[in-house]
Design brief:
Blueprint: H1 3-17, E1 21-30, E2 34-41, E3 47-52, E4 57-62, E5 65-67, E6 83-91, E7 95-102, E8 106-113, E9 122-129, E10 149-155, H2 172-188, E11 193-197, H3 207-216, E12 221-228, E13 239-243, H4 251-261, H5 263-267, H6 277-305, E14 317-319, E15 331-338, H7 342-348, H8 351-371, H9 378-384, E16 388-391, H10 398-404, H11 409-415, E17 428-431
Parallel strand pairs: 1-5, 10-11, 10-12, 12-15, 13-14
Antiparallel strand pairs: 1-2, 2-9, 3-4, 4-7, 6-7, 8-9, 13-15, 16-17
Helix pairs in contact: 2-8, 6-8
Length: 434
């Protein structure tokens, strides 16, 4: 081998040895209160965070790392973020310097995430807005002292955590956000209800953060929407889950809870996200009543889902879901089907089926609160008056409405001047005293 080729090989080996890892991809998400930038690494790497003023910049120096050609930073969507521009360069020969030009005041935090079953090594930069947006959804009493029932709708996963993946790149996070938004629309059309979305777009929220948002908005119910997955593609059926403080009611429930709880490994959890012991003890004191309501309400939702989907189990199951651990808010987790099953994934990916699933969940929630309204709410006041106005929703029947309000079908029809059995969505009925 000639001297020239030996020098070329030595040069290549030397250049390769300069970098212990590479940034293979860069991703960015905007959340209501912060912007997250994620650097996907081929191996663990050390970094240093520096802030500079006049103009305001945030600098990441990543040791022994090169920027791979496929990591195209220029294609990142920076609109509606405090990041005006991202620049990169080589520092000290073998370190990567990333400079973010900032257009608004932020509080930067950076941390590394070790590779796990769901994702590889990552460096995460969170830019928290200095001016927080106020939360407007809270229990409010009107002049007549009849408040709305607040339903916190939690679309599972989001951002860098896609959840389960189905055929043709169908992502759980997209399916459940669509169903959640449809459920929000249906509840907004009901008098006496005020829905609030925990996740309004494609970004990550920790499991504890989801519970905290529901509590901050003083929710009467927390419902988390998901799409199931299993290594056996034949597994199928929709399910409803409540929390278990002792153990899972089935092997499948235990497996699912472990998978859903692992979402924080993908999104990254700071130390502040950990439950402290005292809070856990206090939670147990009020959990019994909350769990009882969760199970009964979940059963009402499950029975309505039975009309449009195959059920995985005919009763509400229980497991240790971290997202359901609110001691004072009834909480359920709805698995809308198995996205890992090709047949169910095909349905879950359609707008028509997403609407049907949302309508079934809506009917279950509405039926429960009509029969068991919290004190001080409009629904509770209407129940005390011995009658109320009811707006017909998709899937309703006269006999079903009569049964729900414990009145006879004949009285219901007579009270509203109805001869036959034909009713229309959006039609209003006056419910007679039972």
């Amino acid at each position: 081998m000639g001297r020239r080729w030996i020098l070329v090989i030595l040069s290549v080996l030397a250049s390769q040895s300069l970098w212990a890892a590479s940034v293979q991809d860069v991703r960015l998400w905007r959340a209501p209160d912060h912007t997250r930038v994620v650097f996907d690494l081929s191996a663990p790497a050390e970094h240093k965070l520096i802030t500079l003023d006049n103009p305001q910049r945030i600098v990441l120096d990543i040791k022994d790392v090169a920027l791979a050609a496929e990591a195209d930073i220029d294609t990142l969507e920076l609109g509606d973020t405090p990041v005006a521009r991202i620049r990169t360069g080589v520092r000290d020969g073998d370190d990567l310097r990333v400079v973010l030009d900032i257009s608004a005041e932020v509080e930067p935090r950076s941390f590394v995430l070790k590779a796990n079953a769901q994702a590889g090594d990552r460096l995460v930069l969170d830019l928290y807005d200095k001016v927080a947006k106020p939360v407007t959804v809270k229990k409010s009493v009107t002049e007549s002292r009849k408040r709305d029932i607040i339903i916190a709708i939690d679309a599972g996963h989001g951002g860098e955590d896609p959840g389960a993946l189905g055929p043709r790149k169908l992502r759980e996070k997209d399916v459940v956000l669509a169903i959640s938004k449809e459920l929000q629309r249906l509840l907004e059309a009901d008098s006496g209800f005020q829905p609030t979305l925990i996740r309004t777009g494609d970004y990550y929220i920790s499991l504890k953060g989801r519970r905290d948002l529901a509590r901050a908005r003083q929710a009467d119910l927390f419902v988390s929407i998901h799409a199931d997955a299993f290594h056996n593609k034949q597994a199928s059926g929709a399910s409803v889950y409540a929390l278990s403080t002792s153990g899972a009611t089935s092997t499948a429930a235990k497996y699912l809870a472990q998978r859903e709880n692992a979402a924080d490994l993908v999104g990254g959890v700071r130390l502040s996200d950990k439950d402290d012991v005292l809070a856990g003890v206090l939670a147990d004191l009020s959990m019994t009543s909350t769990l009882d309501t969760s199970l009964k309400l979940g059963d009402r939702v499950l029975s309505n889902m039975d009309n449009i989907a195959k059920l995985h189990k005919k009763s509400v199951e229980q497991a240790g879901f971290a997202v359901l651990k609110s001691p004072d808010i009834p909480s359920i987790l709805v698995e809308t089907g198995f996205i890992s099953n090709p047949g169910e994934a095909e349905k879950l990916g359609t707008r028509a089926y997403q609407k049907k699933m949302a309508a079934a969940i809506h009917r279950g929630i509405r039926d429960w609160f009509i029969a068991h309204p919290p004190s001080g709410t409009l629904l509770a006041w209407q129940r005390q008056q011995g009658g109320r106005e009811y707006t017909i929703a998709r899937g309703d029947t006269l006999s079903g409405i009569a049964s729900r309000f414990s009145v006879s079908l004949a009285d219901l029809k007579s009270f509203n001047g109805i001869d036959g059995s034909r009713i229309m969505v959006g039609q209003k009925l006056n419910i007679p005293s039972s």
